[in-house]
């Protein structure tokens, strides 16, 4: 039941004058499809989903599904710290025609591991869509422990995890506890190839927003056994990745897309523009990488 293998972009949500900029969103979608991106992840963390209303979120997802038109999978964010709201989003997203769900751990109320098992199983029981778990303790305060992942992987609708703990040992343990049919995606751009080397099948990436063709090439090289080429691209990306995460995501990556002429440099509060120091650093690394700005 793999939703995709390779490079999935955690797509930004462009704004203009406080509203969703659908013209810019369409340009981004077409660019990614043409560049070989293997899947689009709509309304995740990088898409500022936490500050979109439910109506806006579903509108962005429906628009994305329509414009992609089955050329590549569309996976939609359905995470919430309210289980019933995640269930509602999951059902509405299913009606939109999306191919799958990305469901981040509940945040702030910090569920126990037993609470996580109940939370995810309730959502998985409520939808027919395949679900990718999303573990990112640095943003939510909650880690999905390997034994919990093992238990959740028994549900037929829970088919993978986006692992952004940064803990390679933990990810290796997850790989050892789950079946080969359970997909592991890197949630950290600088660990994509290391994670793929222990069984991962790709990445749900922020940096792919600005270098989609290279990210697709890197993951494809690895999947096809061209390991040295994949490692070379991963190492080339490291300075750019550091700059893109110089401030809280998605502040720098949206600034980068603005420099490239794709979107307005606009955020939903409390997100705000990056400092000049970050902008200079980002600009320099983009030029060094070979990105036109």
Provide a short characterization of the protein structure.
Helix content is 46%, strand content 14%. It is an alpha/beta fold.
Structure description:
The protein is of the alpha/beta class and 293 residues long. It has one domain: Aldolase class I (TIM Barrel, Alpha-Beta Barrel). The protein is 46% helix and 14% strand. It is built from twelve helices and ten strands. The strands form two sheets. It has an eight-stranded parallel beta barrel, surrounded by four helices. A two-stranded antiparallel sheet has the order 2-3. Helix 1 packs across helix 2, helix 9 runs antiparallel to helix 10 and helix 11 crosses helix 12. The protein is globular and about 45 Å long. The termini are far apart. The model has no long low-confidence stretch (mean pLDDT 97).
Name a few traits of the molecule.
293 residues, alpha/beta, two-stranded antiparallel ribbon, TIM Barrel, 8-stranded parallel barrel, DapA-like, globular, single chain, 46% helix, 14% strand, 12 helices, amino-acid biosynthesis
